[in-house]
Amino acid sequence: NAGVMQNPRHLVRRRGQEARLRCSPMKGHSHVYWYRQLPEEGLKFMVYLQKENIIDESGMPKERFSAEFPKEGPSILRIQQVVRGDSAAYFCASSGQTNTEAFFGQGTRLTVV
Amino acid sequence: LAKTTQPISMDSYEGQEVNITCSHNNIATNDYITWYQQFPSQGPRFIIQGYKTKVTNEVASLFIPADRKSSTLSLPRVSLSDTAVYYCLVGDRVRSGAGSYQLTFGKGTKLSVIP
Asked: Which A-chain residues 60-79 have CB contacts (< 8 A) with chain B?
């Protein structure tokens, strides 16, 4: 049973480019969460999605950030026109319908140069 | 969401028992207490969850007093591989009718195990 898979593990983008981060949840999980972790900080919730629906995006910046979890395929976190301050580790987690335990992926480390 | 307070860092020698206490004075009736472990360059990993009294699994024990305003994660006989950041989380087990809950992480406790 493969765990939560995130790719790429490392992503380098120049300022102004777009970053696309992918997350495949564990098999059978329909809930996906995205978190951002700045250096020496705890994880900050960004968005909670179910298949084709955004349930809670209260942690998402108002501009440039978007997330989706289509019926088929992985969840995508998209950051447009990246800036240096977007450099961070982005973690995805998934959980099942009645499972209270969230399983995390290994994260994508985004570096904006 | 209840706010949590835990020590920023702790040091321990190998083989010792480590107790990390977390304060959550505003815990709500529906809230569970969950601890996660995070190694460098890794995602957090679930350790243990409890509601009251004591919970034990193969990794750790969780002690929760009757008033539930604090909790203590106990790691028996730590080894170097237990060096990690430990997060205490408090949250409703069920949110938005979805059967899962949003996790709110603080800065955690950085545990350093010394040989």
From this structure: none
